[in-house]
Design brief:
Helicase, Ruva Protein, domain 3; Rossmann fold; 7-stranded mixed β-sheet
Length: 312
């Protein structure tokens, strides 16, 4: 549909445009997995963003009419969503994680990890929050996990690492946005390889974990995200195995390791059948996140290192 064919004269209010956008999204068979779960919420977010309005708008304002310029701005956003299948957070440059707002663009994954719940709970009961002095966010991307941890543990030193210079540029933007300069250390590092020596009470990671088979079948929306942040070898475990093999050198005696592996959880259990992974449950949904204590990581370090050597 070209701009000249858009039904400007038939649509007037915010409600009209939200309904029209949701209908086009359903017609196009879009996928929802980047912060919303349905067409109406996607359309609502885009309409409000185009009009510089916030969620929680007074109900009576939804019947307000748009100007001609406002209509065009709304149409432009809605069309990008259903024609190019761009996830909403990339169109608004905003995503929410652990109750906090973050800048995002196509240099980083859209934040959506269930690890947010763990951070909000200060990783209790697995750590004593007041005893947490050092936290590492591995594969930080937009730095949403690191920044949320810095809010949850205001007296802890939080470090964040990523191999992608593009991702680190976005992370820096978010660190500045949240006033975390000097509080949160950012490192360009291939996992642990370029980090300064340190022992951590919590190492948390949402690394790449999508298998080759799953990558081939992902909806188009996910192909707007950086492949570097998604793909991790044939079974999706390349990054995870390396983290497991190295983590014992970086954890404090009472520390914990928390890693998200998503749909590759089954493959991880097959690789390490003797490792007592604790698979965490979440009230708001999500799965494929395990926790190991520092002691458990040390006890199985030979198995982890063996798998890493075998991967070569």
């Amino acid at each position: 549909m070209s701009p000249s064919q858009l039904p400007r004269e038939e649509l007037h209010s915010l409600t009209d445009f939200i309904r029209w956008g949701a209908s086009r999204f359903n017609e196009a068979g879009l996928h929802y997995g980047h912060g919303t779960s349905n067409a109406v919420d996607d359309a609502l977010t885009l309409v409000l963003h185009a009009l510089h309005l916030q969620h929680g708008l007074a109900p009576e304002l939804f019947s307000a009419n748009l100007t001609r310029d406002e209509k065009q701005r709304v149409f432009d956003l809605l069309r990008q969503r259903y024609e190019k299948r761009i996830p909403v957070p990339y169109l608004t440059n905003q995503a929410w994680f652990a109750g906090l707002s973050f800048y995002v663009d196509e240099r980083v994954l859209v934040p959506r990890s269930p690890i947010a719940e763990l951070i909000e709970q200060q990783f209790e009961p697995w750590v004593e929050p007041e005893q947490v002095g050092h936290v590492l966010d591995m594969c930080t991307g937009s730095a949403c996990i690191a920044i949320a941890c810095a809010h949850a543990f205001p007296y802890a030193q939080v470090d964040a690492a990523d191999i992608s210079t593009d991702a680190l540029a976005v992370a820096e933007k978010n660190i500045a946005q949240h006033g975390m300069e000097g509080v949160l250390n950012l490192y360009e590092s291939n996992l642990f390889s370029d980090l300064p020596p340190q022992r951590y009470d919590i190492i948390v990671s949402n690394p790449p974990y999508v298998s080759a088979e799953e990558m081939a079948s992902l909806p188009e929306e996910y192909h707007h995200e950086p492949e570097l942040g998604l793909a991790s070898g044939d079974d999706g475990l390349d990054a995870c195995v390396e983290i497991l093999a190295e983590a014992s050198h970086w954890l404090n005696e009472e520390g914990i390791l928390v890693v998200e592996v998503g749909n590759s959880a089954g493959a991880l259990v097959e690789r390490f059948p003797l490792v007592p992974f604790l698979w965490l449950e979440f009230e708001r949904g999500g799965e494929g996140v395990f926790l190991l204590t520092s002691k458990q990581v040390r006890e199985h370090q030979q198995e982890f290192a063996g798998q890493l050597r075998a991967a070569g």
